[in-house]
Every structure is written in structure tokens, then in C-alpha cells.
Amino acid sequence: MTALREFVPREFVPRDRDQHPPAVTPIYKTSVLRGPHRPLISLQNSLSEVTGPVFGHGDIGPLDNDLILNYAKTGQPIGERIIMHGRVLDGSGRPVPGVLVEFWQANAGGRYRHRNDTYVAPVDPNFGGCGRTITDAEGRYAFRTVKPGPYPYRNRGNDWRPAHIHFSVFGTGFAQRLITQNYFEGDPLIGRDSILGTIPDPAARERLVAKLDLEAAVPLDTLAYRWDIVLRGSRSTLFENRLEGN
Amino acid sequence: MFTPNALGYLAETPSQTAGPYVHIGLIPKQAGFDIFANNLGESPIGATTPGERIRIEGRIFDGTGSPVRDALVESWQADAAGLHHATPTPDGFRGWARTGTDFESGLWSIETVKPGRVPGRHGHKRMAPHISLWIVARGINIGLSTRLYFADEEAANAEDPVLRIIEQPARRQTLIARREAAGRYVLDIHLQGENETVFFDI
Ligand SMILES: [Fe+3]
């Protein structure tokens, strides 16, 4: 059997590092010992960067995008029921279809189902807190969950994370790989967050904030937020090497 | 929500740290629970994938020389013939894997096949066998891209077009996994310090 989808190897435009946090950001103390100090070495794309794994619906399960049901044991999880949805686009505004989007989050009380999380808030017996989906032909993703709660963490003496969901996104090539977090419009903790504060540009920070989307809400049932993701762009010309080599 | 620039391009979504609980989303078994029927990235190969079976492993050290024990490592590689595959081949070759560093020892490992040589960019020599690595963790604000090469590929490494753009030959060594035994390679990654690993802006 051949690949479900052939590679369309496209060379990526260089990452716009001004949109991202630098490696070392003293406001977020852990980065001080974990961020590389030396400049990155710029690499022109080779096949190892323009290719990447492609996932299909066979890779994931039917409930994987429903965090309200995918770990329900004795009932549904406690919390505000929400739909999070949006599109994955590239820097040229093109939708990125058929890519894996994964997400993980704390429960409504701000506690993760993770052996290293010791926050006093209780684990929800019916909430796993993770899921995944694949973007459709228009680059859309959607999942249902409960709104995560804020939680404290050790950084400055009294630091609290705003409500947020962690996202992992694949593009068409390994060089597009992205992990980030999104936030919720109107959260008063947003302006005080040390991790969001690692991003120097206020406009870039604002692009991580999901907006309330009443049109996508299910009346009397589930509220909705919308958040779009932009991966680095690719050139419209195909990569100059054929996969078979030359 | 987006502000296209004057030419209509969209700004990239900024990266944020994967945080201390990255395992829950991407390798939930390590976080301590089982949720998905299919855990992605557990192996880059299938039982019948052709090629030399190898184990690569290592640790990731922070600026104090302590092992990072909560990182996630993803790998992407060509098959034994030097070809990349978007989706699994009939013999189960995937080329992509993800694993976490151990919460106690900080060790990560991946069992795979040794990749073949891959064409370089147009006009360049073939690249030496290598595996692309991508590392995220609490305290890492944007995923780190590096490569693992093999110590027993001296001739290929010497003409590798990527190793050669690293100006200081000593720094090239930070990417070369030592051969500990037949089929077993070790690469330690240093986030900072004198032996800071070469990370690429790919
Ligand atoms: Fe978090």
C-alpha cells in the first residue's frame, strides 16, 4: 500500500523569531537554566525538515476530541462546558488540512491528571484532560471540553496561571512543529502571567487569546470559544529535491 | 483576530513552553494514566521493518549539569534506504517517535533502525545518516531542533553538508552519538554550558 497522502515537499519560509519568546526569559525562572545561550544555527531546509509524519483518522479514536466523554467513568466532568474551535492556517493564509492537533489541560479546579501535579485542588474522576483531532479540508479543528481552572505554580512568590489549554500541532513538515497554549478572553490573570509574559510583543501575546463565540455555542448546553492557529508559511514553489533522491 | 501585514501574510502563532505536564497530552501513560486506544509515537518502526536495529539514548542536561527529567523528545528520520515516509509503510516503518525523559534518571531512549543517507539540498552532497530531534519541556520557551549523527559514520559525517556549516569543528561533536556497543548509541544533550549542543533554526 502506498502512502495515503503523497508528500508535497515545500520549503518553509524562515520562522519569524520576533513572534516567539526568546530562549532565556528571567520572568519565567526555569528558562534561565534551560534556554540555550548560543545563537541557533540557521539551516536551509533539507528533506529532513520539509517532510514530517502525516496522521489519519485511523490513528485516533471517535471520542478523542470529546474531553467531556473520553474519560467519563461515573458521570460527566464538573465544569463549564465549552467547545474550542478554529482553523489551522499557514503564514500565507492557506488552510492546513489533515494535520494532527493535540491538546491537554487542567480540570475545572486547575488540577492535572498527572503524577507530578501536587496542587490541593481535587482530581476529577471523570476528566482525563487530553484529546486530539485532525483538521478537516478547510483546516478546521474542534473539540468539546470543560473550561480549565487557573492554578498556582512556583515562579514568583504568588504566580497563578490564567486558564489555558496546551496545544501541539503538526504541519506538513517537521520544521513546522509547534507547541503553545491558548487563553480565554477576559481572564484577569492574563496580564499577570509570567509564561505569557515571555513573549515580548503585546500583539503576539494577544493572538494566543481565544474569543468568546456565541454563534458556535449550543444554546442551553455548551458555550464556545474560537481560536485560530497560524503555522509558519511555505513557499508556493515545490522543494527542489525529489524524494527518491538525485 | 489576525492582523495580516501589508502584503497579506499572517503572523505565526507564538510558541509557549510545553510545561511540566506535557506528558498528559502527548504520552499520557507516563503521566500515570491510560486514555487512548492508540498511543501515537510509541515506536518508529514495525516488527518487519528492514534495517539495522539500533537503540539511541541519552540525557538532557540543564545549565547546572543536572539532568532534565520532564522533557519530551520527538524523533523524525528516514528509513534504512534513506527515504522519508509520510505515513507508515507496509512493513510498519513510521520514522517518527516520541518519548519522555525518565522522571528519576532523566534517561530517554528510542529503538529504531539506523537511517540511510538522505539527499542533500540541490547541488550538495548526500547527508550522513542522522535523526532529527525536537525537544520541548518546562522552561523551554520554543521547541529545540537538533540532529543526532553516528560516531561510526566518520566518512559520511566528514562530508555532511549540515555538519559542515557548523563553523567550529568541536561543536560538530555535540551532535555525534557515541557508539557504546553494537547497535547502541548514546547522545547527551547540553542545553547550556561549554558543551552546549548545537541547535538549529530550521
Ligand atoms: Fe498548564
From TrEMBL, chain A:
Membrane spanning residue stretches: none
Pfam families assigned: Dioxygenase_C, PCDO_beta_N
Highest taxon of source: Bacteria
Occurrences of domain Intradiol ring-cleavage dioxygenases (ranges): 84-112
Keywords for the protein's UniProt record, in alphabetical order: Dioxygenase, Oxidoreductase
Annotated GO biological process: 3,4-dihydroxybenzoate catabolic process
InterPro entries: Intradiol_dOase_C, Intradiol_dOase_core, Intradiol_RC_Dioxygenase, PCDO_beta_N, Protocat_dOase_b
MF annotations from Gene Ontology: ferric iron binding; protocatechuate 3,4-dioxygenase activity
Family: Belongs to the intradiol ring-cleavage dioxygenase family.
PANTHER family to which the protein is assigned, alphabetical: DIOXYGENASE, PUTATIVE (AFU_ORTHOLOGUE AFUA_2G02910)-RELATED, INTRADIOL RING-CLEAVAGE DIOXYGENASES DOMAIN-CONTAINING PROTEIN
Protein name in UniProt: Protocatechuate 3,4-dioxygenase, beta subunit
UniProtKB/TrEMBL annotation, chain B:
Domain (Intradiol ring-cleavage dioxygenases) ranges: 48-179
Keyword presence, Magnesium: no
Membrane-traversing stretches: none
Record GO terms (molecular function): ferric iron binding; protocatechuate 3,4-dioxygenase activity
Keywords: Dioxygenase, Oxidoreductase
Top-level taxon in the UniProt lineage: Bacteria
Record-linked NCBIfam families: protocat_alph (TIGR02423)
PANTHER family: DIOXYGENASE, PUTATIVE (AFU_ORTHOLOGUE AFUA_2G02910)-RELATED, PROTOCATECHUATE 3,4-DIOXYGENASE ALPHA CHAIN
Family to which this protein belongs: Belongs to the intradiol ring-cleavage dioxygenase family.
Protein name as annotated: Protocatechuate 3,4-dioxygenase, alpha subunit
Species this protein is from: Falsiroseomonas stagni DSM 19981
